[in-house]
Amino acid sequence: MQQVDAGSEPGAVPLEDTSAPDGGVVARGARWAAGGQITMHVSRMVITVVLARLILPDERGLFAMALVVTDLLERVVAATPGAGLIHVKALTQRLVSSVFFFNILVGIGIAAVLAAGAPIAASLFGNDDVVPVLRAVGLCFIALSLGQAQRALLRRSFRFRAVAVADVSNALVQGGVSVWLAYRGWGTWALVWGLLAGKLASNVVVWTASSWRPSFLFHWADVRSLRRFSGNLSAFSFFSYFQEAGDKFIVARIGETALGYYMLGYQQLLVPVDAVLSVSRNVLFPTFARMEDDEAIAASFVRSCASVAVLFFPLGLGMTVVAEPFVRVILGDRWLPSVPVLAIFGLIAMINAVSNTTSVLFQSKGRTDLQLRWGVANGLLLLVAYLIGAQWGFVGVAWAFLIGTAICAVPGLMIPFSLIRLPFGRFLSALAPVALATVVMGAAAYSVRLLAEHAGAGWPTVLFSAVATGAVVYGAILLFVRPQA
Question: In this structure, are residues 236 and 377 in contact, taking their beta carbons and an 8 Å threshold?
């Protein structure tokens, strides 16, 4: 450990050596981050299944309407100068304290905007019931802002064990409160208060784990010093909203029940994918930011993407193959309209698994300006696709999401690859063995499903036989091929 020279300013924040961390530190950080995210999202998937039995589609859809609005705002909070604390070379007590209080001001401001603007959002959705929900969810932004600086410092110092505990605490407390209140008949409000309870639990953990405490210091010049990095990142988050939340807004216009079906598929597939990818982003960003060798960055990035593909290629295609028996057995017949969405989102999950980590390349190279420009083009293209797809209902939006994502994937990879001189062919070669094993697995699982249905087997038997066959075939091929990932 070494102290950063803060000049004449007393109380400099301790900071690790700014050289690249050794492989052991990165590996331990990755293991803790991965373990935390896997635990968190397995818990959330189980809780989602339980809540599907306790909460009606229209109740989930009403909560999802609020999240359509707040998702954009949460991105802005997450990309405030707190993110710049990881990238900046030297930290001082004044800088971190200024960022801490700035984040709180942003959180309070967003809560106030939601309180005042909720009726406007309700008019856009055509549903006045969302007004009190939006105002209550606004409190979560104040809670979120209270822990942003501590979380950034923990990530910067590779203390991913504490971050993992915070994430798991968030999921378990949110799920526990939501299930208990849903069981008592609170409906949509069970989800709202569960969300707030989870944010508060996460803050308790990061404040306990971090030794840093704010001082009563605030200098606008310090916040402004991170403006270029965090400003471009916030703007990118705004435009990427059209990619990741614009579809939900459009589906919400169709109706809260349609949004409930749509969000079930989204939460079962795309949310877990992004959670695992956040492991890569959280570990790779501070690592790459300290590395000078582009070849080393390229090798680490390819290895990371291939490793994620090993997990999500079979899960994505597997859900596409068994969507109907999965819904009938696990979720219940009232969720059958979500079957086509689950099947489509399985394919989107496969694409996202290998294309949604490129932000670490833009940010580690300090090119958030280039990331912003691509985000604008990508977001607007997908927004147009969603509007076209909406002519065929929420399933049409899902198809538009798939087609738009597939079209944007290639330039979305090649642009950041140019920053580290990574050939696109090298990237595809690393994924080829996993892709081949996945295709064979999907064909085997689908064949067994058709045979079981033709034989008149019950839905539990259909589901189990298809999943078991796919797992055995995929595992056997991986053992034979032994891809580098």
Answer: no
Exposure string over 18-28, b if 16+ CB within 10 A, otherwise e: eebbeeebbee
Distance of alpha carbon 150 from alpha carbon 477, whole angstroms? 44
pLDDT at 6 over 50: no
Banded pLDDT at 415 (limits 50, 70, 90): very high
CA dihedral in degrees (230, 231, 235, 236; nearest 10)? -40
For residues 241 and 378, give the distance between their C-alpha atoms in angstroms, rounded to a whole number.
Answer: 10
Q: And the tokens for 113?
A: 């905007």
Euclidean distance between CA atoms 78 and 12, whole angstroms = 24
At 311, list the tokens: 């997990």
95-98 contacts at long range (C-beta below 8 A, 24 or more positions apart): 95/13, 95/222, 95/225, 96/13, 96/149, 96/153, 96/212, 96/214, 97/214, 97/215, 97/216, 97/217, 97/218, 98/217, 98/218, 98/219, 98/220, 98/222, 98/223
Retrieve residue 353's tokens: 């698994």
Widest CA span in the chain: 80
Which tokens is 77 given?
């909070």
What number is the average pLDDT over the span 125-147? 85
Give tens-digit pLDDT for 232-266.
Answer: 555 666 666 656 677 887 888 888 788 888 888 78
- Give the DSSP letter of residue 392: G
Q: Are 357 and 411 in contact (CB under 8 A)?
A: no
pLDDT at 32 over 70: no
Q: Using the Cα atoms of residue 167, residue 79, residue 141 and residue 127 in order, give the sign of their dihedral.
A: negative
Q: What is the DSSP string of 24-81?
A: HHHHHHHHHHHHHHHHHHHHHHHHHHHHHHHS-HHHHHHHHHHHHHHHHHHHHHHTSH
β-partners of residue 3 are: 14
Q: What are phi and psi of 8, to 5 degrees?
A: -85, -5
What burial letters (b/e) apply to 234-266, b meaning 16+ CB within 10 Å?
bbbbbbbbbbbbbbbbbbbebbbbbbbbbbbbb
Is-contact 462 340, C-beta < 8 A?
Answer: no
pTM equals 0.67
Two tokens at 298?
A: 């390229």
- Measured in whole angstroms, the distance separating CA 321 from the mean position of its chain's CA atoms is 24
Q: At what angle do helices 93-125 and 57-78 cross, to 10 degrees?
A: 150
With 50 as the cut, is the pLDDT of residue 365 above it?
yes
| Exposed / middle / buried, residue 58 (Cβ in 10 Å: 0-12, 13-18, 19+) | middle
Between CA 169 and CA 210 the distance in angstroms is 16
What 120-128 contacts at long range (C-beta under 8 Å, 24+ apart), as own/partner pairs, is 121/69, 124/249, 124/253, 125/65, 125/252, 125/253, 126/253, 127/62, 127/65, 127/256
